[in-house]
């Protein structure tokens, strides 16, 4: 039996119409990161796609959250810590002050009310 491997996926979902402005021209999008287990990268991609389709919502008001697709799929191999679920590499300035400006104020984080 092939052992299960850990993966993380970033899914893209979009609201239509925009739940705040009711605009159909510009959508509020959601990037959702999930972890999953699968026997291979192709099986992980199929699973991620199924998770995205199951995340779709349809309301009586006409608002819909629709699954657009998989933005990224990472294998969380043996070198990945148990509490790690995502990482991205980007080239940026080495100036610490510039790097700190990339960080949002704690109160603007989704969990900011419990962090500040």
What are the key terms here?
alpha+beta, 4-stranded antiparallel sheet, 21% helix, flat
Question: What's the SSE blueprint?
Answer:
Blueprint: E1 5-16, E2 29-38, H1 41-54, E3 57-58, E4 64-76, H2 96-101, H3 112-115
Q: What do the pLDDT scores average to?
A: 86
The outline comes out as flat
Number of helices, where a helix is a run of at least 4 consecutive DSSP H or I residues: 3
Largest sheet: 4 strands, antiparallel
Walkthrough of the structure:
- This protein is of the alpha+beta class and 116 residues long.
- It has a domain of 77 residues.
- It contains 3 helices and 4 strands.
- A 4-stranded antiparallel β-sheet has the order 2-1-4-3.
- The mean pLDDT is 86.
């Amino acid at each position: 039996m092939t052992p299960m491997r850990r993966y993380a996926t970033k899914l893209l979902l979009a609201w239509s119409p925009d739940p705040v402005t009711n605009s159909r021209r510009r959508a509020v999008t959601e990037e959702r990161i999930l972890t999953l287990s699968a026997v291979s990268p192709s099986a992980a991609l199929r699973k991620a796609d199924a998770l995205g389709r199951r995340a779709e919502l349809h309301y009586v008001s006409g608002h819909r959250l629709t699954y657009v697709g998989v933005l990224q799929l990472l294998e969380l191999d043996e070198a990945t810590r148990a509490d790690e679920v995502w990482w991205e590499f980007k080239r940026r300035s080495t100036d610490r002050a510039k790097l700190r400006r990339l960080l949002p104020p704690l109160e603007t984080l989704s969990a900011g009310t419990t962090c500040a």
